[in-house]
Amino acid sequence: MTNQFPITVTVNGVRYERTVEPRLLLVDFIRHELSLTGTHVGCEHGVCGTCTVLFDGQPVRSCLMFAVQANGHEIRTVEGLGTMDKLHPLQEAFRETHALQCGFCTPGFLMTLVPFLEENPKLSEGEIRQALAGNLCRCTGYQHIIDAVKLASDKMGVKP
Amino acid sequence: MKPAPFDYYAPTSVEQALDHVAQLGYDAKILAGGQSLIPTMNFRLAQPSALIDLNNIPELFYIRPSDDGGLLIGAMTRQSTLERDPLIAERAPLVRAAMPYIAHPQIRTRGTFGGSIAHADPSAELPAVTVALGARYRVRNKAGERWIAAEEFFVSLFTTLLQPDELLVEIALPPMPPRSGWSFQEVARQSGAYGLVGVAARVTLDDTPSGRRCRQARVAFLSAGERPMLAQHAAKTLIGQAPTAEAIRAAAEAAAKDDVDPSSDIHASADYRRHLVKVLAARALTEAFQRANI
């Protein structure tokens, strides 16, 4: 028996009411129901990080949650970070340090980093690398991503 | 691949959850953090006909001091909460030390203490930590509740003493005895990857007329057998001894020889795992005894 469950989810500040099967993954709900395709599907088993979104402000793997679990909660995706005219300082930093090539991993890195930078303004390279261990990139070799994090923490005007 | 269809229940109290568990038994899986369950469902390695979601039961999320100086922790407490909690830092530093080794930050946002225990992955950190600490688990069903000692709870791979009508609801951590030290060590190829071998250790010293002697040594290995391996032989070599480098070396060798049963897989051979047991036991005991001496 497959039920249909009504859910209410706030995504990037917008309230959505939808009806979903329990087995619908949160990442597929975001991409197919809401047409927010900035969040990506990579591995479907929780190691690559391309599906990372903010759930009540904290980074989660949206491929390891069901849409029904988001009922009553708040989600932020990469579309809610900035616009082409007004990029988030982190997005600007990624552009300046050439921290993306194909861009597939980038939304996941950004959503992991937003709360991370808020909680940890000044970090060593080792700590940055550990914080990003849950996000894989096949193009860049990570060095420019690390540079972007350092640049962003300066841009975000955080005091040492 | 996407998960197979299932019935979904979202109880808002432990009583409601126990009703579902009693009715559904083995047909249902419990959904706690989902960070181990959902990957298996995404690949259809697991196809439970029903999920009982515990995430909407506020009474299962807490960290409380207990009267004996230890802690009582609700089974659904998030790993990210444990990582940041001041009571954990103060009364259970071994738990805090293990947290960065548990997968990745995004997983710890959802993963739970009780979920890790009930899932009983031999490579998991929290089962080994709770065995080293001598923790106890409170388990409930419709008829009542019982307490199970951590070191008895784990039977085999992904197999515990939990019955199909039971829920793990609470973890009780005892207080750290005076003159105790602790250490957590793990070797993995990448940060957050499954540990090839890991160890959680707690040691306690006595002041005797002839100097400091080891009173107790609880050393539990992960990824060195089908469940957390508590090193009884290593402990025997240490009790009553001064914690010298020589005593630690002998204990580490005993652990590697007699206290573990590692297997070979694509990540490491059994021989290499035994070698890691010896190396990490020595490191953990050295660090733990140093902390105990402060």
How would you sum up this structure in a few lines?
Chain A has helices at residues 26-33, 89-96, 106-119, 125-131, 143-155; strands spanning 5-11, 14-20, 52-55, 58-61, 74-76. Chain A is of the alpha+beta class and 160 residues long.
Domain module count of chain A: 2
Oligomer designation:
heterodimer
Outline of chain A: globular
Uncertain runs of chain B? none
Biggest sheet character of chain A: 5 strands, mixed
The CATH topology of the largest domain in chain A: Ubiquitin-like (UB roll)
Main sheet properties of chain B: 5 strands, antiparallel
Overall mean pLDDT of chain A: 93
What is the tally of beta strands of chain B? 14
- Most extensive contact: A-B, 32 and 31 residues
- Mind telling me the CATH superfamily name of the largest domain in chain A? Beta-grasp domain
Helices and strands of chain B, in N-to-C order? EHEHEEEHHHHHHEEHEEEEEEEHHH
The spatial strand order of the largest sheet of chain A comes to 2-1-5-3-4
Mean pLDDT of chain B: 97
Cα(first) to Cα(last) distance of chain A is 56 Å
Q: Total number of β-strand segments of chain A? A: 5
Query: Can you give the helix content of chain B as a percent range?
Result: 25-40%
What top-tier CATH class of the largest domain in chain B fits best? Alpha Beta
- End-to-end separation of chain B: 54 Å
> What is the CATH architecture assignment of the largest domain in chain B?
2-Layer Sandwich
Number of helices of chain B: 12
Structure description:
The complex is a heterodimer of chains A (about 160) and B (about 290). Chain A is globular and about 50 Å long. Helices cover about 30% and strands about 15% of the residues of chain A. Chain A has two domains: about 5-80, Beta-grasp domain (Ubiquitin-like (UB roll)), CATH 3.10.20; about 90-155, DNA polymerase, domain 1 (Orthogonal Bundle). By secondary structure, chain A is an alpha+beta fold. In chain A, α2 (about 90-95) crosses α5. The mean pLDDT of chain A is about 95. The termini of chain B are far apart. With about 290 residues, chain B is α+β, with helices and mostly antiparallel strands. Chain B is about 35% helix and about 25% strand. In chain B, β4 and β5 (about 70-75) form a beta hairpin. Chain B is globular. The mean pLDDT of chain B is about 95. In chain B, α10 runs antiparallel to α11 (about 245-260) and α11 packs antiparallel against α12 (about 270-290). Chain B has three domains: about 5-55, 2-Layer Sandwich (Uridine Diphospho-n-acetylenolpyruvylglucosamine Reductase, domain 2); about 60-175, Uridine Diphospho-n-acetylenolpyruvylglucosamine Reductase, domain 3 (2-Layer Sandwich); about 180-290, 2-Layer Sandwich (Enolase-like, domain 1). The interface of A and B includes residues 22, 49 and 59 of A.
